[in-house]
Request: fold
Amino acid sequence: MKQAHTGFFLQSNSLQPSALLRNSARDVGLPSIGVAAAGPAERADIFEAWLESGRAAGLDYLRRHAALRRDPRALFPPARSLVVAALPYPVNPDPGAGGFAMLARGRDYHLLLRDRLGALARRLAVDMPGLRWRVCVDSAPLAERGWAVRAGLGWIGRQGQLVHPEYGAAVVLGTLLLNVELPADTSLVSRCGDCRRCLDACPTGALAGDGTLDCRRCLSYLSIEHKAADFEPADAARVGARQAWFGCDRCTAVCPWNRAPPEAIPAEFLPSPPPSAAALLELDESGFAARFAGTTVLRTGLARLRRNVRAGSISKE
Reply:
């Protein structure tokens, strides 16, 4: 059966391309996907104005690759469709405790999403000869949240995160760029109404309320991305007073849309108990690598993790 949109032939499957895609996605553990047609990204000018404002702080890689974010075909020239996948992770029942955001307590979501998106592409390729693809999970210069909106997976909340109508704000995203044209899904309008829970939950006033934030005040930025060996006093106070050893999920944890059924959350994302401050300060490099193997914490490194923990001691002096 010839695919009307792609010119490819389905080898042994009578399903239409959309049904084949969604069935295959469920089979590889991606039950919530959406499709958008490749083209210029929306809100690129707003993003670039945000960069120019200085609120991106030390995220220099965003500036270096800003032009690539304007169109996914700059990353993958044959792209005609974007398949965006959303996976929920557990909501932190006490986002002010434990030192680690929930995404840091389970397996690195980059690895899981890359594995599942790659498996999806390989499965589709069996029935779509000539299929080409690129997997993008966070590290590629792609406006993932914007494309998730265009793919009908949710809307952007006031805290700047995608809000999924079934999973809420506690979701991670990955994208599969394909060289085939697939029927696009319909975007959703915001359902936040007059809710301000995320804004009120931010302990440092980092959220602007329009979907943007000031990284210079954000606990996630300061504890994960900020590369200085030591904090300035104001930053040490922000990080230390909230025990933000790695990340912060206060603004996502309070979203009233958080209602993902337990069976939808991958077992790999289930959290392990966080270590104490004393245990963290006693780690050497080999102990750090063993304790946080397969998690996002590895990217920060032991020296910066110790810096974050020490900020808590300084803030109590």
Q: What stands out?
A: The longest strand covers residues 81-88. The chain has twelve helices and six strands. Confidence is low (pLDDT under 50) at residues 1-13. Residues 17-90+108-178 form one domain.
